[in-house]
Amino acid sequence: MAPPLFFLLALSIFTTTFSDAAGNLSSSYCPTYDCGNGVQIRYPFWLVDNTTSTQFCGYRDFGLTCSDSGEPILTLPTDSYCVKNISYHDYTLTLVDIDIVDQPCPRARHNLSINANVPLSYSSKDLNLTFYFNCTSNSSSSLESIECLGFSGMRSYVFIVGEEMEDFDLLENCEEKVVATVMEAEIGVGNLNSRFGGAMKKGFVLDWRSLRDCGECEARDGLCGYNTAGREDLCFCKDGSMSRGYCEAC
After folding, report:
1. DSSP readout, 146-162?
2. pTM score, two decimals?
3. Closest Cα partner for 160 from 195, 138, 130?
4. How large is the average pLDDT for residues 231-242?
5. Among 21, 33, 202, 238, which lies 20 to 30 A Cα-Cα from 165?
6. What is the chain's percent helix, strand, coil content, to nearest 5?
7. 244 phi and psi, to 5 degrees?
8. Helix or strand or coil: residue 194?
9. How far apart are CA 242 and CA 240, in angstroms?
10. Residue 99, pLDDT above cutoff 70
11. Cβ(177)–Cβ(171) below 8 Å
């Protein structure tokens, strides 16, 4: 069913206002950065460096660092991720697990964990893969193992979540289970064992949304920030001023 017209209009107004405010406040308070790989870092994302030690313009959990190779890095509770793309139009970012970069046979080492207070969520473009690692040699011969992850008689397997074999207890016979997220379009059809590696290297997509605590500031054309020394929320106004909470006359 098509969304109501008033919803589309509201979304359009929000997106335009959000983008315009971000553009108008590209200043010393809310600058734009590029680590070197061409991904533009701007509000609500910000660069973590020596100049942001006391205050910054952006969402608290959206601070990015630059790697030595010029990649923006986002740190989440379980690991760090290379940021391959940020779409300020679609409100999405594409991430690649830093642990599998440059690995000829990627090995997922942890599940993705997103704090409930962080305005990030899975995208409809994503697909979850379940890996079972270091399974005993008694594993069912009907299962095709991942050749490049086998060693010393142990085997590893990968499945699309929900399509695991029911006639063999993988949890009982394998040392570790890890769920990794990829883009569904990169899996396609065919042998999953030969396609998961390329899909993992392409990364996965997360949607980001407006932070609830920033609603009043952004509604008045301001951009949110934070003072780490005083532990207080800030609002950067388009007239160049800064306030605590929201802008009186932006």
Report:
1. -GGG-BTTBEEEEEETT
2. 0.84
3. 130
4. 87
5. 202
6. 25, 30, 45
7. -105, 105
8. helix
9. 7
10. yes
11. yes
Residues 111, 179: contact at Cβ < 8 Å? yes
pLDDT at 84 over 80: yes
Tokens of residue 228, six digits? 């780490």
Query: Do 225 and 57 contact (CB within 8 A), yes or no?
Result: yes
- pLDDT of 53 reads 66
With CA atoms as reference, report the closest residue to 225 among 209, 206, 239, 246: 246
Query: Tokens standing for 17?
Result: 């206002």
Respond yes or no on whether the N-terminal peptide bond of residue 77 is cis (omega within 30° of 0): no
pLDDT band of residue 243 (cuts 50, 70, 90) is confident
Integer Cα distance of 184 and 33 in angstroms: 30
Residue 100 is encoded by which pair of tokens?
């599998």
Distance in angstroms (rounded) separating the CA atoms of residues 111 and 132: 12
Q: Give the residue among 48, 117, 112 at the shortest CA–CA distance from 79.
A: 112
Residue range 172-213, pLDDT digits in tens? 888 999 999 999 999 987 789 999 999 999 999 999 998 888
Q: What is the pLDDT of residue 167?
A: 59
Q: Are 128 and 161 in contact (CB under 8 A)?
A: yes
